[in-house]
Q: What sequence folds into this?
């Protein structure tokens, strides 16, 4: 009985949130809808990094690279070959995932901080490569311009803020659905086991190497999707959106929200993505306060804003 | 010595002649760390339906033998044969999947996961659902999850930790943590259980319970290999004892033989200085 | 050959910068197991403190100590200031958070880094600043067909003196033994009667102080400074730390030098635009084949 009530309550909350999300763009200003769009992008990036950092505990400080691969795949294939954005959505995801598989395979055995510096290195390599315009493909520091809007065929084009708002939040919603199910499966449990104790996980029969690779592949794939949507919203991409600083921000999203917590990643995205917007009035002191707020947050809530709850607190 | 169940059990320390009796065998196993030879041409035999103990003074190389057998360290020489199959070069998770489950000297649990989740992880290697079938909850995946839950629940019951199922592993008492680690190992449906000092840190009552538990496991026809320092436990449960010192086997035999073996006593207490 | 020697000299110079900054990462990491992401920005703070001294009070300082004296005072004041900032940072942002674990401390470090960077921007403004060139000795020696400036010689000598001094303290003194013991096992070291607070004070003051002094040297060498430069230098120095083996003092020095030389050779032989890619690829290759760095001890995890 209790369990049924709980499920009903959860479903109720979900429906209320979904309705609120649907009504929001029609009552809010275009500016706010745009802010909510970028919140959605941050949420998707937070969710994607949460797989790597939160679930498996691997320090990935180069996540912007996967985001960049997704965005540039879309940008280049769309502007060069005219492939529609929606076709490129899965293509970008798969390219980023494939890239992750390629670059992570040789380094996946590294531990802790050593893996961390390698991800930083990969992030920088990608950014510098984009800057240097290899083969005239990436447009150097200016990036790639003139990316199309997503079309659903015929006159149905997503070109308004509201359209993009729905696009990103539908993708976020679907990702959350998939990630929650993964979390409660053999794969999710094994990921957590690796985070807790790699040696014990391996000795219990968990293939640590392939599951670590899997988390990078899935995380990169989601980041690639975010890159696709971002590219078509902005209609241009440039290397300055994919710096080490950006990777750090995604890192903070996961930790501020709570390691391995799916609602946490969304809340963390709100904290990181919305803070600079809300405190616009602070002008040049804004980021100063932002840094201080991060320190304060870790003092008051070291486990994050919405940590993942596990099991009961006492004997049942 | 109460565990003699059939006529095949040994009456003396003669070499076992029936091959199929041996589940795990190491031949001339060697492991070096830099210049130190931790395990030196070590031969070990574990028979089906027996509890074998590996004993020896501190630093004799016992845990290293376990780590080499379970694939954590690669062997520098020799062979590991399990169920007639060569285990050399297998990764730890492959060894576990082939049927050797182990525990660690210093308990290694997934401390921020619940006790039930800890035990469920043991079934990981017996399931095959991948990313997509987990997301779409295919029939097969749901069937596997149900089975995982069933195995985990029964193993948790078996070690008497049912009441702790929803508590985080780090929050349960030390003695229970040891049992939880055994339950996790059992949840992999092993053919051989390797325990590294299972009674260390346990009080007398808990040790007694552990011994009863191990004997009960043997009734399930699960052979056990254990490292143990507590001689009461060793003498109480073992059918066969191998003694190692400085990486080498110095004796093996029935508990009563080992008990009186001068070489063993010397290894433990040191040689009397001759004047 | 010509390019090679010239790039070697240049690489050695910037390598010694990286090495000095890397020491700060390594000292803190060794004892606290924390990547102090704010270290790069402490270095920037050093650049700016040096800039302020050399621009605003230079006339006064020069009249007292002469040009070299003035530069020396700039470096010392900068080192003291940045060392103080390091202590303050540890007290405010790390000490209260450390009990909560490693990860919150990493976020806190990133927070401090953002704070410091923006603090510098607010105080000194967002535009590039330049060290006054009248202050910077421009003499050089022409040996054959390559040249070495007097500034490079001074920087190299000074860097090696500082590194040697630190090496001596860490490896040869009782206090250094205490630091090494703490980085091996902090809790046991504390039980053995080692005053951990003293060691934390040392690592969080000396590391940043070295960074601060390096800041002034970098300012003199490159002239141009900006509030975001901490990221670049911090990242390079951190990379150097990893190449050498994190938490390892001689490793950090050697890693820094190797990195500087690699970077300059990459710039000379490959292309300036791709030099960082070259550096990172070398880093990744080093780690693939030696997962704990060049000098990192091969610590098999105890199972």
A:
């Amino acid at each position: 009985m209790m369990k049924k009530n709980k499920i009903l309550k959860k479903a109720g909350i979900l429906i209320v949130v979904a309705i609120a999300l649907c009504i929001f763009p029609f009552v809010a200003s275009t500016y706010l809808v745009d802010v909510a769009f970028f919140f959605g992008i941050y949420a998707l990036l937070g969710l994607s990094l949460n797989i790597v950092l939160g679930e498996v505990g691997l320090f990935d400080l180069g996540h912007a690279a996967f985001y960049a691969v997704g965005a540039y795949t879309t940008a280049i294939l769309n502007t060069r070959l005219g492939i529609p954005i929606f076709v490129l959505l899965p293509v970008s995801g798969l390219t980023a995932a494939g890239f992750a598989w390629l670059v992570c395979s040789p380094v996946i055995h590294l531990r802790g901080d050593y893996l961390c510096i390698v991800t930083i290195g990969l992030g920088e390599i990608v950014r510098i490569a984009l800057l240097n315009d290899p083969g005239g493909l990436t447009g150097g520091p200016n990036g790639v311009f003139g990316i199309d809007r997503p079309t659903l065929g015929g006159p149905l084009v997503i070109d308004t803020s509201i359209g993009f708002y729905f696009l990103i939040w539908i993708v976020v919603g679907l990702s959350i659905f998939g990630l929650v199910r993964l979390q409660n499966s053999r794969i999710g449990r094994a990921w957590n086991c690796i985070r807790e104790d790699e040696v014990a996980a391996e000795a219990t029969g968990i293939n640590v190497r392939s599951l670590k690779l899997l988390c990078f592949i899935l995380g990169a794939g989601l980041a690639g999707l975010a890159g696709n949507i971002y590219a078509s919203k902005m209609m241009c991409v440039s290397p300055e959106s994919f710096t080490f600083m950006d990777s750090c921000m995604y890192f903070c999203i996961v930790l501020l929200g709570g390691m391995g917590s799916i609602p946490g990643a969304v809340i963390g995205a709100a904290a990181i993505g919305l803070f600079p917007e809300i405190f616009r009035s602070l002008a040049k002191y804004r980021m100063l306060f932002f840094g201080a707020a991060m320190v304060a947050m870790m003092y008051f809530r070291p486990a994050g804003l919405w940590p993942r709850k596990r099991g009961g607190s006492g004997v049942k | 010595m109460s565990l003699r169940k059939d006529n095949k059990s040994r009456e003396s320390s003669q070499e076992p002649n029936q091959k199929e009796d041996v589940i795990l065998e190491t031949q001339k196993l060697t492991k070096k760390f830099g210049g130190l030879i931790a395990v030196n041409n070590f031969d070990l035999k574990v028979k089906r339906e027996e509890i074998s103990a590996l004993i020896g003074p501190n630093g004799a190389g016992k845990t290293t033998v376990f780590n080499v057998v379970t694939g954590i360290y690669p062997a520098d020489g020799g062979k590991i044969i399990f169920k007639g199959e060569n285990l050399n070069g297998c990764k730890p998770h492959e060894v576990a999947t082939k049927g050797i489950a182990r525990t660690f000297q210093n308990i290694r649990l997934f401390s921020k996961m619940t006790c039930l989740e800890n035990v469920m992880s043991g079934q990981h290697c017996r399931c095959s659902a991948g990313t997509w079938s987990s997301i779409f909850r295919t029939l097969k995946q749901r069937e596997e999850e149900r089975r995982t839950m069933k195995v985990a629940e029964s193993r948790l019951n078996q070690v008497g930790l049912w009441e702790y199922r929803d508590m985080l592993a780090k929050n349960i008492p030390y003695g229970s943590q040891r049992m939880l680690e055994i339950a996790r190992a059992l949840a992999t449906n092993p053919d051989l259980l390797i325990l590294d000092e299972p009674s260390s840190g346990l009080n007398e009552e808990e040790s007694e319970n552990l011994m009863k538990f191990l004997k009960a496991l043997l009734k399930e026809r699960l052979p056990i290999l254990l490292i143990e320092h507590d001689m009461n436990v060793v003498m109480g449960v073992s059918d066969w004892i191998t003694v190692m010192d400085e990486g080498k086997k110095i004796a093996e035999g029935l508990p009563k033989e080992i008990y009186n073996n001068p070489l063993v006593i010397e290894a433990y207490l040191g040689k009397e200085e001759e004047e | 050959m010509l390019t090679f020697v010239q790039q070697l000299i240049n690489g050695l110079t910037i390598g010694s910068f990286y090495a000095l900054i890397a020491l700060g990462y390594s000292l803190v990491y060794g004892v606290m197991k924390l990547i102090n992401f704010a270290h790069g920005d402490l270095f920037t703070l050093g650049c700016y403190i040096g800039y302020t001294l050399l621009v605003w009070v230079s006339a006064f300082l020069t009249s007292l100590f002469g040009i070299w004296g003035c530069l020396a005072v700039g470096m010392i004041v900068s080192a003291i200031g940045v060392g103080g900032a390091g202590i303050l940072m540890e007290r405010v942002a790390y000490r209260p958070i450390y009990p909560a674990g490693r990860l919150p401390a990493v976020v806190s470090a990133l927070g401090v880094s953002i704070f410091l960077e923006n603090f510098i921007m607010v105080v000194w403004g967002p535009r590039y600043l330049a060290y006054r060139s009248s202050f910077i000795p421009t003499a050089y020696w022409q040996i054959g067909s390559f040249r070495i400036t007097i500034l490079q010689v001074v920087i190299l000598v000074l860097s090696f003196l500082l590194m040697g001094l630190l090496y001596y303290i860490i490896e040869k003194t009782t206090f250094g033994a205490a630091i090494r013991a703490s980085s091996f096992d902090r809790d046991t070291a504390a039980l053995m009667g080692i005053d951990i607070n003293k060691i934390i004070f040392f690592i969080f003051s000396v590391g940043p102080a070295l960074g601060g002094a390096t800041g002034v040297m970098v300012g003199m060498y490159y002239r141009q400074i900006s509030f975001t430069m901490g990221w670049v230098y911090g990242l390079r120095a951190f990379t150097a730390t990893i190449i050498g083996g994190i938490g390892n003092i001689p490793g950090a020095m050697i890693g820094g030098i190797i990195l500087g030389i690699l970077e300059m050779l990459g710039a000379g032989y490959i292309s300036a635009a791709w030099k960082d890619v070259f550096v990172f690829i070398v880093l990744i290759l080093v780690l693939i084949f030696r997962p704990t760095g060049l000098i990192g001890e091969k610590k098999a995890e105890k199972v």
The longest strand of chain C covers residues 140-143.
